[in-house]
Structures are given as structure tokens and as C-alpha cells.
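Notes, p. 3: input format for complexes.
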Amino acid sequence: MPNILLLGGTTEASTLARLLAAHGTAAVLSYAGRTESPRPQPIPVRVGGFGGVSGLAAYLREHRVTHLVDATHPFAATMSENAVAAARIAGVHLAALTRPAWEPGPGDDWTAAADIAGAVALLPETPRRIMLALGRMHVEVFAARPQHHYLLRFVDAPAQPPALLRHTLVVDRGPFSLDDDTRLLHDHAIDLLVCKNAGGTGAQAKLAAARRLGLPVLMIQRPRLPARTEFQRPEDVLDWIAHAASSGTERGV
Ligand code: 3Y8
Ligand code: NAP
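Output follows (253 residues plus NAP):
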């Protein structure tokens, strides 16, 4: 019988959790514990790191996991690397549930940045009003450009104020809507949007809002991820689990 460990934290992971619950498949969703009250799930949840590759491999063995599904965010590169290594050590099937990168379309004005530091280097000299849609973990580096006013959006209220001279903080969790993001960008007179190429539907409203308002976007490219079996539809992960189980190639320990 399949026994799934689902590394979550994305809209797609939550969709897959609902499908696994509906199919009655034994599964646990795992959060890192980055937010105060993560979305409740229809399957059991565990919260917190595993303790690196060895900790995850031990978890897979101890809980007799047969399939590890990495449905973490495309920027959660360390987790994804650890998942590939730990699945190999524990002899457990691994697949990733991911989403295609966003592509610019007609009316978009995107500039690519290789990473967060690259985005800082690409900021204009003249003072601007910039939305950093990057969450809480990548704010300090922008203190190197104090001339700008930053609009920040965090999932949770921070313990201390962000280390940016001029900033406005909004506390909100996605998925976000086009009208709300249009209003947010307009009401704060934003003239540049900085974001990660997360893909998916939960965070794309701000891009449509930027297009509607004719705003430029500084789009941070994804980090390199290890080679692994990848799916983009939660339903395809279910088929993969069923196939691996029926073909008797289960290498769960
Ligand atoms: C803890 C779980 C679901 C999943 C929802 C998706 C969509 C809404 C949009 C903006 C961009 C950002 C951020 C974002 C989005 C979804 C998805 C997504 C971006 C939760 C969640 C956890 C996290 C962690 C959090 C990070 C932060 C990143 C905010 C839950 C709500 C900016 C990524 O305060 C912190 O420390 C937050 C840290 C990692 C990136 C960062 O570096 O700060 N996500 N987000 C997960 C865990 O503990 O394992 O609380 O319910 C999940 C979601 N956030 O089931 O509905 O599918 O991506 N999350 C980015 O895309 O750039 C917000 O503001 O426009
Ligand atoms: P990361 O930098 O790749 O991982 C750092 C460490 O956090 C991992 O080594 C692991 O600790 C722990 N970890 C990460 N995801 C975990 C999970 N789902 N369950 C248990 N432990 C986990 O990860 P991150 O970018 O901080 O992302 C953390 C969480 O937020 C993930 O669930 C991710 O899907 C979600 N998220 C991230 C972003 C983003 O922009 N990075 C956006 C949206 C959602 P150990 O080494 O101790 O095992």
C-alpha cells in the first residue's frame, strides 16, 4: 500500500492533498514551519525541518514512506536537493509537483534578474516606489538602496520592523486577486514591481495588475533545481503513485 510524504507549502500541494484524501491514500503533508498558522489540510500534517538529508532519509525509513512528493515552491531549492538525495538513500520513489515559469506576454514590461542580489543591482538610481513581493526572508539586502520607498507584503506580522528606511508593510497571505492587487499597486502609487518567477496561480494576480497599470516588473529567475521526475498536474502524481504501486516496483523500506 502506498504511503506518501508530501512536501507542501504551495497551492498545488494543497490541491494534491485534497485528491489524496478523496482517494483515501495514506499521506502526510509537511510544512517547514515558516508561517504562524499554515492552511489546515485534509490529511495529517507535520511541521518543521527534518535535519538535513540524513534526517529526511531517517524519517522516510522510520515512517515506511513509499513515495516522496516534492511539491515545494520553485525557490525552495535546498529542500528539493535534500529530497532527491534522501529518496535515493532511503530507496523511495521521488517525484516533484511543480508549475511552469511565468512568461511575459503582450503589454508586459519585464526585466530579468538572475537572483535577489541581481535585482538589487538592477534597481534604478532615481528614487522610486517599489513593491517587493518577495515575502519576509529577502528584505535586508534592499537596505543597500535606501533612496526608494518599499511596499512589503508578508504572510505574518514581523517581530520587529523591517530594516528598510522607507517602507510600508502589508500583512496578507495569497492567493491574491487581480482587483485587490490592482488596488494595492494603485493606492501605494507603485512604479516598479519586484518578484520571483514562482509560476502557478496563487501569486500571478500582481503581474496582471502590473500589466493593467503599465508598470515594469523586475522578475527574479528560479534557482537551478536537481534532475528528478516532474509533474505539473496533481492528477498525474496520483497516476504515478498508482503505477509504481501496481508494478510492484515499490522500493519503500
Ligand atoms: C509556509 C503555507 C496554499 C499555498 C499558498 C503558491 C501561492 C499563496 C504567493 C506576493 C508573493 C511568497 C511567499 C507566496 C505565495 C501561495 C501559497 C504562496 C509569495 C504560504 C505558507 C508558507 C509560506 C512561506 C512563505 C515564505 C515566502 C513565500 C510569501 C501557509 C502562505 C513571497 C513567495 O514570512 C515568511 O517567512 C514567509 C516565507 C517562504 C518567501 C520568502 O522568502 O519570504 N512563502 N507561504 C510553508 C512552510 O512552512 O513550509 O501558511 O498556509 C504558502 C503560499 N505562499 O496552500 O494555499 O502556491 O505559491 N509565499 C513567492 O512566490 O515569491 C507571496 O506577495 O505576491
Ligand atoms: P528551503 O530554503 O529550500 O529549505 C530550507 C530548509 O527548510 C530545508 O533544508 C528544510 O530543513 C526546511 N524545509 C523546507 N521546506 C520544508 C517542508 N515543506 N517541510 C519540512 N521542512 C522544510 O525552503 P524555503 O524556501 O525556506 O521554503 C520553506 C517552505 O515555504 C516550503 O514549504 C516552501 O514550499 C514554502 N514556500 C517557499 C517560497 C519561497 O519563496 N522560498 C514560496 C512559497 C512557499 P531541514 O534541512 O532541517 O530538513
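Residues 36 and 156 are 7 Å apart (CA to CA).
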